[in-house]
Amino acid sequence: xxxxxxxxxxxxxxxxxxxxxxxxxxxxxxxxxxxxxxxxxxxxxxxxxxxxxxxxxxxxxxxxxxxxxxxxxxxxxxxxxxxxxxxxxxxxxxxxxxxxxxxxxxxxxxxxxxxxxxxxxxxxxxxxxxxxxxxxxxxxxxxxxxxxxxxxxxxxxxxxxxxxxxxxxxxxxxxxxxxxxxxxxxxxxxxxxxxxxxxxxxxxxxxxxxxxxxxxxxxxxxxxxxxxxxxxxxxxxxxxxxxxxxxxxxxxxxxxxxxxxxxxxxxxxxxxxxxxxxxxxxxxxxxxxxxxxxxxxxxxxxxxxxxxxxxxxxxxxxxxxxxxxxxxxxxxxxxxxxxxxxxxxxxxxxxxxxxxxxxxx
Amino acid sequence: xxxxxxxxxxxxxxxxxxxxxxxxxxxxxxxxxxxxxxxxxxxxxxxxxxxxxxxxxxxxxxxxxxxxxxxxxxxxxxxxxxxxxxxxxxxxxxxxxxxxxxxxxxxxxxxxxxxxxxxxxxxxxxxxxxxxxxxxxxxxxxxxxxxxxxxxxxxxxxxxxxxxxxxxxxxxxxxxxxxxxxxxxxxxxxxxxxxxxxxxxxxxxxxxxxxxxxxxxxxxxxxxxxxxxxxxxxxxxxxxxxxxxxxxxxxxxxxxxxxxxxxxxxxxxxxxxxxxxxxxxxxxxxxxxxxxxxxxxxxxxxxxxxxxxxxxxxxxxxxxxxxxxxxxxxxxxxxxxxxxxxxxxxxxxxxxxxxxxxxxx
Amino acid sequence: xxxxxxxxxxxxxxxxxxxxxxxxxxxxxxxxxxxxxxxxxxxxxxxxxxxxxxxxxxxxxxxxxxxxxxxxxxxxxxxxxxxxxxxxxxxxxxxxxxxxxxxxxxxxxxxxxxxxxxxxxxxxxxxxxxxxxxxxxxxxxxxxxxxxxxxxxxxxxxxxxxxxxxxxxxxxxxxxxxxxxxxxxxxxxxxxxxxxxxxxxxxxxxxxxxxxxxxxxxxxxxxxxxxxxxxxxxxxxxxxxxxxxxxxxx
Amino acid sequence: xxxxxxxxxxxxxxxxxxxxxxxxxxxxxxxxxxxxxxxxxxxxxxxxxxxxxxxxxxxxxxxxxxxxxxxxxxxxxxxxxxxxxxxxxxxxxxxxxxxxxxxxxxxxxxxxxxxxxxxxxxxxxxxxxxxxxxxxxxxxxxxxxxxxxxxxxxxxxxxxxxxxxxxxxxxxxxxxxxxxxxxxxxxxxxxxxxxxxxxxxxxxxxxxxxxxxxxxxxxxxxxxxxxxxxxxxxxxxxxxxxxxxxxxxx
Lengths: 361, 361, 250, 250
Fold this sequence. Notes:
Chain A is of the alpha+beta class. Chain A has helices at 40-48, 90-100, 105-118, 134-146, 164-181, 192-198, 216-221, 226-231; strands at residues 2-11, 14-24, 29-33, 55-60, 63-64, 75-78, 152-156, 184-189, 201-206, 209-214, 236-246, 249-254, 259-262, 273-278, 283-286, 297-307, 311-318, 323-329, 342-347, 353-356. In chain A, strand 17 and strand 18 (323-329) form a beta hairpin. By secondary structure, chain C is mostly helical. In chain C, helix 3 (83-98) crosses helix 5 (120-146) and helix 5 packs across helix 7 (162-192).
C-alpha cells in the first residue's frame, strides 16, 4: 500500500531521516515509535507532501508521489491538536474537502450525515470547534479527513494534547474507527504504551533510522538493537565478556564479577565484549533460602521496595555492588520484601538479550 | 512535627480546602497525592505562609504559625521549576538565606562548601542557574533551602517540569537526600507512581478533603473510599445488589446479572445497593477448560489484547455484555490469548472492595 | 491585550475622564463666549470647532484606509517567498519608521511640492498612509504568522491550493488579531492628526491655535482643545475595545 | 522582540539605509553650498546643523530621564495594594495617553504660560516626560509582573521581607525587559522631538525649516533633514538592539 524507499531528509545540514525504507500493508495499523527528535513527524510530513525528501521515493497504491502536489495526494492527515477550522462549524469543517472539488451540496449532505451518524456526532452538527470535547474534536478531525476517502490516514500524535485520563478511551476509539472504516493507519507517537495498544506492527525510529519493524511480540522477543530494548521498557544492563560457550548460549562474566548464563548468544565467541540486557520482571526475588539451584543465582540486599497497584518494584544491591531493578507481580497481600533484607535473585537466562558492547551514550 | 487542624480556604467563593487535619511525624516523607485542582498546592502554600487559611491552625514543632510571617517560618520551599535566582550564581543563590540574617561571610562559606560537597555540586559553585541540568538545579534548590536549617521541607511537584526519563533518577536522589539530612518532607504531587516511590505515608486529597492517609500498603488493601481505589490504579467497577450474606462476605448480583462473591462486606445487608471494585490483576484469565471451580468464574471473549513489557492487558467482554479490564503478568514467551478467543475468567473475591452505591461522577 | 489585573481601574478612570470632559466641554464655552473679543469676532470656539472635528476625523479615516492598503501590500510582501521582495519591503519599513512623521509631512508638502503641487490634505493622507503603513505591514505579517501553520496544512491536505488556503482558512483567522491592532493604530492616528495643523489644515488644533491667538485666551482654549481630543480618543478607544472583545470572543 | 524570520532582511535593509544616508549626507551639502544664497547668508546647512543635533539629542536624553522617573513612580503605583493609588495612576495614564503630544506641548507652553513663564525647553521636557511617562508606567508594571511570582516567594521563604524581595530579587530581573523597552521608547522620542520645532526651539527640523524658507531650497534641505533623522534613528536602533541582545543573553 504505502512504500517508503530510502527516504533521506536534512534540515540546515542536520540529517533528520537517514535512509528509511518501509512497507505498510492495506488496512494495517502501523505505529512509528521513537523519542522526540527521531524524525517520525518529518517522515509523516514527507508522505503528506508538506515537505519534500532529499532522496528516496514515496509510493502510495502503486503511484509515485514525487510529482503529486499536497492537495492531490490520497492521504488524510490528523494533526496533534486536530487543527479544526475555528471559524467554521462542525458541518462546514467536514464539508471543506468535497466543496473544494465542487461536489454539489445535495451530494455532500447525505455523506456528511452518514459520517456524523457513524461517529456519534449528529448532535454536534452545528457546534463550533471550541465547544467540542477532546474526543468529539478528534472524531470531527477524522470525519473531515475520511470524507475525502483517502487511501491512508496519517496521524501525528493526535493524543498527545489530550488529558491523561481521556487518552485511554480515545485510543480505543481510534482502534474502533479504524476497524469500522478498514482504512490503513500510519500513526506516529513517542508513547510506548500508546504504540503497544494501537499497533498491528510497530516501527522503532531512532536518529533518522528505522531500527526495527515488527509486531509488539517480535520487538519484545527479538529486539534488533539495544535501543529497542531500552526504549520498550525497564531493563538492567550488564557489561561483560563472554567466557564460555554452551550450545547456542554462553556464560558472560560481568565487569562487577558476576557470572551470567544466557541462552541466545550464538553470534558471540569467547573473549567478545558484550552488553547483556535483562528486564526487571525476568529476575525473580526471594528469601535467603529460595532458588538454591544455579545458574544465575545472585545474592543481594533490598535498597528500595515500592508497591504499585499490580506490581512491586525493587532496587537490590548485589554483593558485587551492582544495583538491579526488579519487578515482581503483586498477587498476594504481602507488602513485599522490606528494605534492608537479604534476598536471593534468580536471573532468567532465557530472556536475556545479548549485544556487542556499545560505547556511545 | 507538623500539625494541620481543620484547615479551610476559599478563593472567590470557591472552597479549595474543606477542613483538612493531618499530623506529620519528624523525619517522615509524607506525600500529598491528588488530581490537579484538589487543593494540594494551596495547602502547601498555607503552611509556608504565602496564603492565610480562612479557618484552622498550622502548628510546626509545637509553635502556632498564625502570627509568624513568611520569612520567619521554619520551612523550606521547593518550587515546581526550582525558582533559582537567575541573576546570581550557584554560590550566591545558596548564600541568600544566611546573608539576609547578616551571617558573616566567613561563617557562610564553610557551610556552603559542605553542602556543595554533600550534594555533588562543588564543581558548579560559580555556574549560573541557566547552565545547570535538571538534576543539578534541583540540588541547588535543595541546598538553598537546607542551609537555613528548616524544620520541614515543602516540595511542590518539583519533578513535574523535568523530562520523563530524568524523573526516575531525580526521585531516587530526593529520597537519598532526605535520608542523608533526616529532614521532614512534605511532598505534593498528582503522579501516583511518584507518590508510591517516595512516600512513607501518602495522603489522598480530593476536592479539598483528605480522604485517607496511610502507607501505600494500607491504601491498596483498605481503601477508605471509591475515589482512593480509582485514583491508585486500573479497576473494574460493578454496580450490584447484595443478595446473600456469607460470613463476613456476601454475594453481589451485578446489574448485568453476574454473581460476584466477595469476602469483606460485613457492613452490608441483603438488599443493599453497592459498587464492587476489582483490580485488573485480580482477575485471572485462561482457556475454556481452566478454572472449573466456582465461585466467580465468568465466561467471555477477548476484545483486545495488548502485550506490554512485563504484562499483558486484556479487554474481555462477558456473556452479559460487560467489558472487563484484565492484567496478567507476562512470564512466558507466549503472545497471550488472541483477540476473538473464548476465555474463562476467575475474579478473586478476596481483593474485591465493596462500597455503598455512588451516584455522582 | 491589557492584562486583566488593571482592567477594573482603567475602566473606572475611563468613566471619570469621560464624565469630566463632557462636563467641562459643556461648561467652558459659555465662559469663553463671555470674554470680550478684541478681534471683533463674535463666533465662539464651540461654533468654530465642528469644521475642525470634521477635518480631524476625516483625515483620520482616510489616512487609516491608506495605511491599511499600504500595510496589507507590504505585509504580504514580507511573507513573500522571493528574497528581493522581502528586502524591498524591509527598506521601505525601516526607512519610514526612521523618519519623524512631522518631517515626512514637511517633505511631502514642501520638498516634493517643488516638483508638483501637492494639496495639503493629500500630503497629509499620503504621509500618514506611508508612515503608518510601515507599522501596519508588521501587523498583517504577524497576524498571518500567528495562525498555526497546521491550519494551512490541514486545508492543503483537504484539497485546497496554497492561495485558497490563505484566503479561505488563514485570513479569516488572522483578522482576529489584525482588526483590533488596526483599531489601535487608528487611535494613534487620531492623535497624530494634530500634526496637520502645521500644513495649515484647519483641524481641531489649528482652529484652537487661531482662536487662542486672536482672543489672547490661551488657557481656556487649549484646555478645551485638550479635553476635546481626550473625549474623542476615549470614545474611540472604547470602540476599539469593543471590537477587540468581539473578535476575541467570536 | 522582532520575530527571527525577518531579521536577516531587516539587517540588510539597515546596512543599505545607513550606507545610503551617509553617502547622501556627505554628498548633498556640497551641492547646497553651490546654490546662490538670496538671503546673503553664507553659512551652509551643514554648518548650522550641529546646534540642531545638540538640541534634538539633548532634549531626547532629558525627556527620557524625566519619563523614566515619572514612569517608575506611576508603574509602582499600578502595583500598589491601595486601590486609591491605582485609580489615581489610571487617571493619569489614561488622560495623558488620550491627549496628542503636540497639544500637550502647546498646553504647557502657551496655556500654562498664562500663569507662570515656562521656558520652551522646560515645556518640551515636561511634556515628553509626562506623555511618555504614561507609557513607561506600563513598561515598569509589566516588567515586574513578568518576573515569575515564585521568585518573590522563594525570596520570602528564604527570609527576605517584601521590600527586600522586590529590590534584590525581582527588580534586577525585571530590568531585563524594562531596559530594552525604555530604549525603544527613547527611540520614539528621538523622532517626536521634531515637534519641539513648533515651540521655536532650534532643533534639527526648525533649523531645516528656517534654512529652507530663507534659501527657497525645500527639496534638498528636507531631503537632508529626513536623511539626518533616518541616520540618527538607525544608529540608535542599533544601540537599542545591542542592549536588548545583551539583556536577553545575560
